[in-house]
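Example with several molecule types.
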Amino acid sequence: MTVQLDARPPVAPAPGNQRQSSGRLSRFDTRFSPYLYIAPFFLLFAVFGVYPLAYTFWVSLHDWDLLGTDHPFVGAENYTRLLADVDFWHALVNTLGIFVISTVPQLLAALWLANLLNRGLRARTGWRMAVLVPNVTSTAAVAIVFGVLFGREFGMVNWLLDLVGLDAIEWKSNRFASWVAISAMVDWRWTGYNALILLAAMQAIPRDLYEAAAIDGANRARQFWSVTVPLLKPTIIFCAIIATIGGLQLFTEPRMFHSGTNPIRGGPLRESQTLTMYMFENAFAPHYNFGYGSAVAWLLFALIAIVAAVNVLVLRRLGGGPGPRKGAAR
Amino acid sequence: MSRLWRASPLTYLALVFAAGLSIFPIWWMFVVASRSSDAMGQLPPPITPGGNLGANISRLFDNTDAYFLTGLINSVIVATTVTVSVVFFSSLAGFAFAKLRFRGRNALLLVIIATMMVPTQLGVIPLYLLMTRLHWNDRLPAVIVPVLVTGFGVFMMRQYAGQAISDELIEAARMDGCGTARIWWHVVLPALRPAAAVLGLLTFMTTWNDFLWPYAVLNDPANPTVQLSLRALSDGYYQDMSQVFTGTAIATLPLLLVFVLFGRQIIGGIMEGAVKA
Amino acid sequence: MAVFPRRRLAAVALAATTALLVTAGCGGGDEQGGDGPVTLTVDVFGQFGYEQLYQEYMAAHPDVKIVERGTGTNLDEYSPKLTQWLAAGRGAGDVVAIEEGLLVEYKANPGNFVNLLDHGAADLKGNFLEWKWNAGLTADGKQLIGLGTDVGGIAMCYRKDLFEKAGLPTERDAVSKLWPTWQDYIATGERFVAAKTGASFLDAATNTFNTILLQTAGNTTGYSYYDTSDKLVVDSNPAVRQAWDTTMDIVDSGLSGKYGSWSEEWVSAFKQSKFATIACPAWMTGVIEGNAGPTAQGRWDIARVPGNGGNWGGSHLAVPKQSKHQAEAIELVKFLTSAKGQIGAFKAKGPLPSSPQALDDPAITGASNAYFSGAPVGTIFGAGAKSLKPVYMGPKNQAVRTEVENAVRTVELGQRNPGQGWTDAVTNAKKAAAK
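Resulting structure tokens for the full complex:
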């Protein structure tokens, strides 16, 4: 094979003779090789992406106990049971709640941080690295650390609250407080990352727009809200989409935040059990009900699809493309 | 620089605050990791390192029940393999999407973008059944093979290739008689190197951090990834918190190291990706 | 032309993939040597204290190599793994430990395990307390799933230094006299709290609840959440209700430190001496020592449990059918569960033998535990062991117990009042049982 390769004429092939001799091969090459190059992705995605999702649906139509030997078809029963399952709705509300109270402050803080970074700074890269460093830490590790920081009696956060004369907060067993604590974890990890994306978009804004605004007498705050923010809209929405996909699937943070018996419940009253956790609890220990767990997975998938579709529509309307690339998956 | 962009002392103050918040949990992780386990639960909480780091590390590695070293080695194997593979296949596919013309290209690209929205971790149940059938349960291929190439990687490479490589260059190589594979190897890959590096780093970190799927499929306590041995340490029958924190610190260290060495490139990659919208 | 390098590339990729598939498959029970030594994997949780026994066994059987997995693992982590291995048909060790609360669940699929009766286990019946032996049998009595390891006789562990600070007696017999009943225990607790030592009287209500439940059930109905026909009786078994009410009294009196059992704050509370007593099945002594650490040595002691006896925990060793070395594994199980093996485990980590011979052995009757101020653990835990009345546990015992204990926890944390808590407990238990 290599011999043939090396037999290639060192000069550019002239049209005519040359082209005819190697024409078949090269036509074959240009026509089919692209498919070969993209095939690995599609193959892998078919096997480990599409098939599981489809098969999840199939499983969800059965009474599928991991330990049982036969899996009778039950139709939509898992879904009807699920829709009447208060714990499911509870987990859905938790997921959405954590999502909202993490995403909104996260984007606002990122905007603020980007604005700070978008100035003539000394040690520019140093500051950028400092705000990005949470993003490169290990999620499970950080969740363990935050779990300790937010401890009821021995946690640093409650100790600080006590210093300033406030009552201790039950971070793990108060529903809203646990949402806040988990959101804090999520925001800690992602604010810097989003700030850098927003910063990049800010830097792409032509300066003369600000100069024009300044001539019109707008002060800095006004310029920020009337020039910067509107122009950042597509990027902000992009960040929101990424936050949506990650946020609705949240698992590691709340799972590792809790320790003790049955952390998969997210607290004694399932205060911070997300849908993914609920899926896990049903599909694996202690229930091993794959059918029911699959139904949870599908409803969660539907939820994400709806939210993503809304996002895409919004993006279209704003005239953006597919948006900037997605960051390291959550 | 115009006057508008000057940083005031207040800016620095705010940045110091933000940076402090960012760094503190990591700092504190090392603080606890360097103290004896009796420091656990102490109030006021210690915020300066103690002298037990070495002892804690050796206790952690001596702890035969945690399989921490195995976890580290496994995570290195998994993250490295996945990174190499993702970069390899993504640059191939990205090149094809950016520079080669073929029927269905745009439609297929849209599919790729759509897959980025598909929460594949929701497929854990059938994936688990699939792995059972393949006899990959408890074994590393279960966590390696499904992520050998990602839609994100393909898309990122496509974006970068589209902008970094001129069509003339490709055409010239073609005139030289290069087939697409040779073009990819000699022309495209060198030009993609910066993006490949960023993709590699991001992939490495994501894979290193992966938790849900390994948690579901790797049940053998003697064959965990590092995140799983952390979980085992922290959910133990009884817990030695300084060992747990030493574990978290060690699990974080490789990422921090990568970050310190390549921080500029990673930041560049994230920001460049953003403006290329 | 270019087809070739491309193909070569593909070949490289393929080779790389294959290579990683081969090399990455380290670990996990697949090694089958031809003539070499047989490797037996033993899956356990918590502290079984077998290390020394393995050494002995391997010395006597040079052709056997023993690898243990799971020491230190929480039961909540261990049992799902075992379940998944059994379901997958591979991955489980050659010898697996099964905790009493889960035994019925595993017995539901007896085909997963080797019938030890087919391998001469019947001769060993006399080596075990009768109820322990029976617990390993399937309902029809035809298959023996596992041989018993330990039982969980219950005592009350307490901090001498904190008792002293509160002006309470510190000597173990005197402490035992403080609380013949749980109501007396509560009264003592109130005295303790009134002394304002900065510590709570007990760690958490959940473990205490389970202790009271198992004791009450053992003394009355003989079953807890399920009756012996596997019907869920959480709301009709008086033992459950009685344990609930007593626990509510404890919570009401403000005795609990609310340190969620097994959580990181529980560990911190051990370290910071934040509670004075903890319900103490025999195996708990190892947990206390591990959590409280060497600095607390000699500050702990062990007294009688309030009420009358009781058993919490204890396990069986079984051999999954998927094991490739069943014969060797069965021999190992017989060795580990023999009187000698049980004594060895007790000396190492404190699990109380289920063998009457072992319980009578001077090594047990004369045993004391230095960490617990030299408490005579052999007599404290062993005394009642032979008269222990077993508590039957039904098919979804673990899931139901989780729900009820969560309800206890919500009341303890003030999220629910006792009435609401009870309603939750019953509703959620029924729901979990139906899943």
